[in-house]
Amino acid sequence: MRDATAEADFTRWARDRQGALLRTAVLLTGDRQRAEDLVQEALVVVASRWRSGSVEHPEAYARQVMVRRNVSWWRKHRREVLRDPGGEHAHPADPVDRTGRAEDRMVLDAALARLTPKQRAVVVLRYFDDLSERDTAAALGVSPGTVKSQTHLAMRRLREHLPDLSDRSDLLDADAPTASSRTSGGGA
Predict the structure, then answer these.
(1) pLDDT of amino acid 43
(2) C-alpha to C-alpha distance for 132 and 181, rounded to whole angstroms
(3) What CATH topology corresponds to 93-176?
(4) 16/154 Cα distance (integer angstroms)
(5) Residue 31 to residue 21: CA distance in whole angstroms
(6) Where is pLDDT greater, at 10 or 5?
(7) pTM, rounded to two decimals
(8) Which of 76, 66, 71 lies closest to 43, judged by CA?
(9) Residues 41-66 pLDDT 10s
(10) Which residue in 40, 36, 37 sits closest to 14, CA to CA?
């Protein structure tokens, strides 16, 4: 009976959180198809921990799995992406969003694509998922100091590519719709 209850609880949790996890994954990867794969991989890992009762914070753990797997993917495919920036591993922007801010989204997606995977993860978790420095550090398995330094470096790099970033805080607004919120029925 415990297994059936755990399975039902996990299924309910996964259904409720899948949209938010997909939104995070799209921002991490810049590619909806890879993001969907990343969410599925994370859910498989969380499900096995859930059944054994060894996951206290499933969403934080799922984010951690997604970030780590995305960094691993990037390391494995980095040469292909750099060699063929418009090819199979490119980070296509969704051309339409429900508020007509497609151009803003494309600019932001291009700027995020210029960050290292770790910097991108910090920015996504801090500014889009609205996690505290401590929660971001826990999700990434690093110290809060590392989160601060990576955030600083990422924001400096974003400002280089988005000079008017300070005037456009809406681009980093957690409530700003993303391509995934349009297609997956919402975020958080």
Answers:
(1) 96
(2) 22
(3) Arc Repressor Mutant, subunit A (1.10.10)
(4) 31
(5) 14
(6) 10
(7) 0.65
(8) 66
(9) 999 999 999 988 888 889 989 999 99
(10) 40
